[in-house]
Amino acid sequence: MKNQDPLQLLLQEAGNVGRLDSEGSFTISGDAALGKLANFQLPRKSAWILKIVQAAVTAEAAALSISQSNETTTFVFYPEMEFGVDELKEALLSPGLVGPRPVQHLAVGLRAVGFGDGRAFTLALDRQGVRTYFGWNGKELAQRAEALPPEAPPRLTLGVAFPPEDMGRSLGGLAKGKGRATEEYQEIVSNGEVCPIPLLFDGRRIDTMQAPHPDETLGNTATLSVGWTPYSEADGVPPLDLPKGMPERSTTWRPTDKFTDSRVFFFDGDLKQTHTKCIVKLRYGYKVESHRSKHRSFKFQSLKRRSFYAWVKDGVICHREVSKIPVTPISFEVYLSADGLQTDLTGFQIKEDAEYVRRATLGKEQICFQVENTLHALQEHIPRPFSLHAATYGAVGLVFTLVAPMTVGKSLVGAFAFVGLALSAYDKKQIMDDCAHHLRRLTDKLRHNPRPSFRRVE
Questions:
Q1: pLDDT tens per residue, range 202-241
Q2: 437, CA 20 to 30 Å: which among 2, 165, 223, 251?
Q3: pLDDT of res. 138
Q4: C-beta separation of 41 from 346 below 8 A
Q5: What angle separates helix 85-92 from helix 101-110, to the nearest 10 degrees?
């Protein structure tokens, strides 16, 4: 068994920051620090984790890795922008936003999770041949340093402890426990899909534009399209970086139809682009009530879900608005840059002013174009794959049936299975026809509501 990195051991037990009291250490009572929290109330307790993502993005890190254990959530990234622990300490204890943007984000996040939620944390910053530890044990801050080899690269590692009554993971990492761990994981999955740098949570890529729908419950969700247009300065909006984890279009043959819940049906944009004015995602909700069998017919119903305007700042969705467009089975989410808009000190509450509405209007124009392009792609797709699937499955089923007398058991089972698949291909066509119908209805609703209207997400 390999020896574990002493730094990782320390960070996995973030409460050990109380031991950072060696000679020359810095300590401060938590009483003064706790009074600063009122200026930095985040919209949700779990939102602090997004501030760490924003810190990595604005520090120009190549990637951010997050992992959870029973005791700790750990973050690792390699910042290109230089900053020191002294700057972070000053920002953490200042009533306003102090220091470069990565430091501001770190300070807001650590203040919320440490001073607000009372959780211990330890941060280790490797810089210029020195590793500086800085942490909070729930009562006081402490700091100390140790020498590193001069060639050691800049690295930031942060461990945040779960309270004893609220452990993070269970069943050997196969399932997440209730409480903070689950909330923080969902926070990252829901709001980190647009991250412009590789974002990994326990090894899983998050920056894929494939987060679950905010209203998703039982049933199915087909991601119809993800689309964007070339960026132009003439639009007068800040560029929005495209996430690098979006799956590439597949040109190879697959045995399954591309209209499925497991991947994006249609990419409406150039995957070689690096930024755009906005991104639009279209989804279709439905639920299969019964599959075709000898005694039952195929039945399904479409599921209505809300549409959203999602505002992106420094790599995460910081704010959502619900569209007032009448709810339909086709939902959209338009992602827009929040850079330059007026916000509170946390950056998560955006002021609705004229510029805010102007950007939302540009996003709505893109929605209209994408709905039409997606409908066209869907209509082009319907006649071919289903006839191919039906012929393929039907032919294989016939072969199984013909050879059944020679191998009675398994061949008969195979015959029925493949005939069933042929029928399900036709059944899926019913779902796609319904999807196309609702795309047309959404087009009409968008034309009758040219100005974007929305309400705050509670």
A1: 999 999 999 998 887 778 899 999 999 889 898 889 999 9
A2: 251
A3: 83
A4: yes
A5: 50
Mean pLDDT of the chain: 81
Q: Which residues contact 94 (CB under 8 A, 6 or more apart)?
A: 36, 107
DSSP letters spanning 87-118? HHHHHHT-SS--SSHHHHHHHHHHIIIIIIT-
Which pLDDT band, with edges at 50, 70 and 90, does 345 fall under? confident
Give tens-digit pLDDT for 108-154.
999 999 988 889 999 999 999 999 999 998 888 889 999 999 889 99
Q: Are 20 and 7 in contact (CB under 8 A)?
A: no
Q: The tokens of 439 are what?
A: 């795309």
Residues 197, 61 contacting (CB under 8 angstroms): yes
- pTM, two decimals, is 0.83
User: Which domains does the chain possess?
Assistant: 6-205 (3.30.565), 220-379+452-456 (no CATH)
Nearest residue to 155 via CA among 89, 73, 62: 62
How many alpha carbons lie under 13 Å from residue 255 in its C-beta half-sphere?
A: 4
Question: Is residue 220 within 8 Å of 213, Cβ to Cβ?
Answer: no
Structure confidence by residue, pLDDT tens digits, 6-52: 555 555 555 565 455 444 445 555 555 555 554 567 889 999 999 99
Vertex 373, ends 369 and 379: CA angle to 5°? 150
